[in-house]
């Protein structure tokens, strides 16, 4: 006899009020609620650190198999301690929720927004290369800077700094290394005055006669735009870590 | 013969060049030269592959002296030229001499002087350049009135041809090139290759490309190369030979370039090794 699928919501023995079925269904709901809880940050609704590491690892593996890059944005709210100190932790929490909501509205459904810890966040961007990830970070920066948090009838201006990296199948790169590079760029954005985006993106220095990827693309009717390097993730930049 | 009186007479100088090796430059040069000489033109082939000469091999001629002896030892260039037919001569180069690929300033001006001088005896000078974009290749293309870029439908050939055009455009201010598409499997393919290359060169380099002609892929060509005889002689009725005759007719219509140096009279003679006038 074939086993009956347990998730059918009618009793296999056709009891009207089957207690076992009720129990199983309740357990199923509880299990999915706990799973959700175990990967979610309760304050912001973003994924938590554990899920972030797991997803980044998974997306990087996808990149290796498909050849599509994985973008990563690290964000840190600027002067967040001042917000907490001046307005209290409740407003601080509201500020975190406010920023997270605004950003979520500006990313795709496939993107994976995570709370890294405190006021720091990471957004994993499947199938996204460095130039596009950098553009997105710039958009997220602007939209937050343009949307003050309403507090008691006035607007509390919030800004954030962004560091961007992308995994393009570089040999030996680990999730930690990709995170470190984005974090390194974030530290640079802070050092350069905050409310800005720093990206591991550098235009290739080219000889004036070198055939560019756009020219190659035009010759063979393919896609161009690979004329950049990632000094941090490519290991060209010594002080990355 | 008084060479000096002929200095101002200008032949049509074309270079055959490709960036990539193995696209058929030398074979095209030799067969075009044969075709031009048959129509009564006086033709000189200059083996511009100064480091790995091949023209002598394709014509099965024995070379005793080469351009290298002229440049390095001051030998008389007219003694170096080998006559291979009533109207057809070859100025051979040396093989296995890597340093010949990178001509210094002094060698360049020597070569320029001697090429101008001996060219004046001919109606057409065909320069077969080396592969790559080395200094000697660029210089010879700069020297020629009409650089002819030889390209095959092979993507690497198209890339290398484009790279060569780009370097010539950027560093030598060349803004027009003739293109010959070689080894075609169909005439349509030739048109496609040329149109693509032309479009990209116009868009990115503002360089004009002119389609001089196309030569189909023909097994007779490889056979002739192995026999070291121009296919125009071994297989005069082959498709490749017919294409060469058309190309040759197009080249006959080219005029002596107004391009920089070519329009000027040859530079003053150097005492050595340009000893042509001394000999006379």
Low-confidence stretches of chain A: none
Rounded average pLDDT of chain B:
85
What Rg of chain B, in angstroms, do the CA atoms define?
Answer: 18 Å
* Total helical elements of chain A: 7
Give the count of helical stretches of chain B. Answer: 13
Could you tell me the strand content of chain B as a percent range? 15-25%
If you average the pLDDT of chain A, what whole number results? 89
Helix and strand sequence of chain A: HHEHHEEHEEEHEEHE
Strand content of chain A: 15-25%
- Count of beta strands of chain B: 8
**Anisotropy-based shape of chain A:** flat
Biggest sheet: strand arrangement of chain A: 2-3-1-6-7
What is the rounded Rg of chain A? 23 Å
- The global form of chain B is globular
Number of strands of chain A: 9
Identify the quaternary structure here: heterodimer
Structural features, described:
In chain A, 44% of the residues lie in helices and 17% in strands. Chain A is an alpha+beta fold and 241 residues long. In chain A, the strands form 3 sheets. Chain A has a 5-stranded mixed β-sheet with strand order 2-3-1-6-7, with helices on both faces. The radius of gyration of chain B is 18 Å and the shape is globular. The termini of chain B are close together. The longest helix of chain B is centred in the last third of the chain and has 19 residues, at 187-205. In chain B, strands 3-4-2-5-1-6-7-8 form an 8-stranded mixed β-sheet, with helices on both faces. In chain B, 45% of the residues lie in helices and 18% in strands. Chain B has helices at residues 25-38, 55-58, 67-73, 77-80, 105-119, 135-143, 155-172, 187-205, 219-227, 231-234, 239-252, 260-263, 276-279; strands at 12-17, 43-48, 82-85, 88-91, 124-129, 146-151, 176-184, 208-216. In chain B, helix 7 links the parallel strand 6 (146-151) and strand 7 (176-184). Residues 1-7 and 259-280 of chain B have low confidence and may be disordered. Chain B is α/β, with parallel strands linked by helices and 280 residues long. At the A-B interface, helix 7 of A face helix 7 and helix 8 of B.
